[in-house]
Amino acid sequence: xxxxxxxxxxxxxxxxxxxxxxxxxxxxxxxxxxxxxxxxxxxxxxxxxxxxxxxxxxxxxxxxxxxxxxxxxxxxxxxxxxxxxxxxxxxxxxxxxxxxxxxxxxxxxxxxxxxxxxxxxxxxxxxxxxxxxxxxxxxxxxxxxxxxxxxxxxxxxxxxxxxxxxx
Length: 167
Prior knowledge:
The protein has 167 residues and is α+β, with helices and mostly antiparallel strands. The chain has 4 helices and 9 strands, in the order ααββαβββββαββ.
């Protein structure tokens, strides 16, 4: 459902060169900040570093340390959002599709601390659940994917539902 955005991935060394050379690039292109994730053992807030625009100077130290490990790392735009949501669903080989109610969760320092599931979602959550189900169904169909999975979403009034993670 909707448009899939793709971009050329920069290597860790290319990003590090940009960081060292051109902070204006980050201030202009990452106005909400950025997130750096290590490629190994980065989950639930571990190995994940969030930088607001006024903290970009700290990037030099971190990226230098990450490059010394020899492991790749990832740079993402920080996305401001009002809700963090997840939909768990299953799709069979013959196309049957079922899902649990859309869940909302809260995190403390990037680690999930509370999960809310209303059972029978209503109001805004019901509308978001309809959209999340349509996205999950469409994605699993286009990927010809079968099994059980979860899609994690960010929601903001400005941007609507945005896929953050597929697991």
